[in-house]
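Field: sequence (string)
Field: structure_tokens (string)

Example rows 1 and 2, in order.
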Amino acid sequence: MKTLFLLPFFFSLVYFLSDKAECYSHKKNTISQNKHEIAAIYPADSSKNKENPVIPGDFADPSIIRQGDMYYASGTSSEWAPHYPLFQSTNLLQWQQIGYVFSKTPSWASASFWAPELFYHNGMYYVYYVARKKSDGISCIGVATSQDPAKGFTDHGILLEFGKEAIDPFVMEDSGKLYITWKAYGLDQRPIEILGSRLSNDGLKVEGEPFMLLRDDEKKGLEGQCLVKRNGYYYLFYSVGNCCGGGCSYQVAVARSASLKGPYVRFSNNPILSQTEDWKCTGHGTIVTSKEGKDFYLYHAYSKTDGVYTGRQGMLAAVTWDAQTGWPYIQPLGEKVAIKKNFRDDFSKDSLSGAWQWDFRHTQPDYKVKEGKLYLSGKTAADNLTGTALTVRPLSGDYEITTVIVNYNASLKGLVLYGDAGQSVGIGIKNNTVQIWEVKNQKRMILAEEEIRVKMPLQLKMKIDKGYQCRFYWSEEGKNWTEIKTGSDYYNAGFLPPWDRSPRPGLMQQGVVAEPAVFSFFTIINQ
């Protein structure tokens, strides 16, 4: 049994809704608000709204379902553990994180935990997910089940291997039969295809020969699909372009067919969702339908202000259907300014808050929470020049992080902005010396250091602007701060973002396990 990593830490966010259809993959849906509240939230022309994320911060490739009065959503965790953050909501407006799909890495998998697909069938919750095999690094689709997402998932291993990779699963039920679709040939010298195949009645085996739904003959990119059946047509929503990073070009398009197996005809007015005034590279979502019959599309996008430094954030849109042609339209939502929650962990609980994640490929953290303190050390891989880092998702590009270190030893202990084990920067104390350090191009360098003569505890602070402009401070009492300069007005951490995820701030220790870092609190204040 893969037990769910339960969270005392919850994200609560304020947002906005709208319109209609039925997602045929048994993605049932509901909004626990009265009709007057829904009407007030759903304006006549929501395209004029200033849209905001419903799940801010790095939350790519989201999947959403409803069962009863509860919505569940999960998204890509990539190289962070625990794997696949799991959120719930009763109204699509306020979301809280209840844990992770996997608290431990599945035994067969090594990396790249992408694009989870949530599904409900015959009293069972499923997650179809992507990861790389340990044996050869090929991305495959696995499956896990649970009777209650809040009580843990059981992994059933690899469901589907196909060529050089099989990614982006989507599952639906059609006429009492289960089907899975996926992206194929993305690493081959041929057009990408969206393929489909039958699943066994229990959803745990692939049966029969695969069939093609759509092919990328123009070689623009094709992935992140979702299927909806409505009024005799199967509507295939998909993403085109480059998904990730500064050069992303994602857009959402749609095609339809009178048969699940095609042929599919592309909509002449594609794309149906593209960049807006404040957001770009929109795509890779799924559709959920409320009890009131309204359809919503949960997808990801980059903020044009914060860009890669906050990652692909969870966005919400209304799906409406043309009464004459039947084709869908997508309208991003969010007239009000989202409430961005600050986070403080004073380590007062018996276990580590579920807000924390780490790079599981490069470190095995050794931590305990005891009497209001976090004790942190860990075993690191040979190519890890950073040390052990526990990190949280930044919700904006402008924020401050602060901590208090209460112990003295030869380990480096402090704050970190972590892109990867070979891409990081931070401030820490080692013995009685405060250091500003960087790991860049697989080299570690001390940028500045200052010997101090103060008694522990010691407070450290990093101020980040625009996601990459870093400044470093220390204080004895937390009121008067001393800045340590790195040679210019700010340190440029623009090299940190990996191609598919945002850098993350947090706590770090570099040294032997027997000399842990001891922290009494951590805060992140979003500006």
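Row 2 begins here:
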Amino acid sequence: MSAAPKAPVKPAGRDEPGKARLAAIVAGTAIGMAIGYAPAFNATAGVFAPAILREFHWTREQAAISYAASMGGLAAVSPFIGMLMDRFGPRRVILASAVVFSLAVACMSLQSGDIAAWIALSVVIGVAGAATSVLGYLAILPQWFDRRLGLATGCAMIGLGIGVAAAPTATQHLIAAFHWRATYQIIACVSLVGSLLACSLIRERKAATRSNQRNDHIPDGGADPAFSAVKLCTIFAVAFLASSATLSLNPHLPAMLTDRGLSAGAAAHCASLIGVGVLVGRLLSGILIDRLHAPFVGAGFFLAGAAGYLLLMNAASLHSALLACACIGLAIGAEGDLLSYLIRAYLGLRRFGLNYGIAFAGYAFGAVIGPLLAGRYFDLNGNYELPLRLAPLVLLVACVLLVSLGKYRALQSSPLDAQLASAET
């Protein structure tokens, strides 16, 4: 009698998930980003500004300092957060950050008009919120996906797009119904509960973490490409330039549109449509970068953002302003997908957290400088004409740098990708 065939032996350390596990991981990252730093604080900064300006009698530049200070804190701490994620895993870092972030947002309601205290708390929010942003959540997906990383990232980014789209309008209604102080407390509670739910769904791939620490190989994707400081610096520069252009008027947008005669509600709807553009840009760019050369995809979306600024500069009606905001949102959305993908493709999983943290710091520093310069220009000149003219030019430079990155190792198919493909049918 012949011996029964032996069952295939799985490689040691492998952690092959089912469809439900993969779906839960993507859903968890989507939920976490929907109530994390960007929707809960960044997307609402411009909506809070008019009420804060009236109560504290601040200039617009002073009101924008909160947004800029938080992004400055996030930028400064991003490489360190990346190192912590490489050491302890993203999930633990996200959970600790979410608790501190929610408490800090709630403390915004206690402010008395002391600008130094306002800036200090904003920095704390940025530092604590770093891991609740795409920096933390998108560090998980490359552990599970390779050839379909763009699609997985795009699906997860839908959560961020929904959060950014819904937050301004919801915040406007809450401020009108309650008060801006109570609204900060409500946002803090929602963020904490959502973060706990997200952390209950996401999982880390232990095999990927160990190989990352050993610096020997990429699971399911072949050998890591050699590290290139030039590539990393170029990605940093692209992130800095693109975010400084696309986010420069983000906290100023509601006030700028009300200056043009729109109501506060209509201005909030325009800010929300940026979120809709972000949502479409996240998903569409995620699908495209799995099929086309990622720098070309990114350049196309950046050109759409440049067109949005040209349209906003000459917007004479609510409909043209809405279309302009949607185009700008497309560029913001694509940039979020691109960063993690470019790091994964050009530099691999080896020290992914640190490299991604450095690139994300470029994005955050751009988000600091852009709004501050735009606010300063308005206080000196009473309009946003020059920032609106410079933003398309900056996006064009980012396009050139992005395309200059050249070819990268094609991300290969894996058992995880096969399961995702079967789940789509």
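free_text_note (row 2): Residues 19-411 form a domain with the Growth Hormone; Chain: A; fold (CATH 1.20.1250.20).
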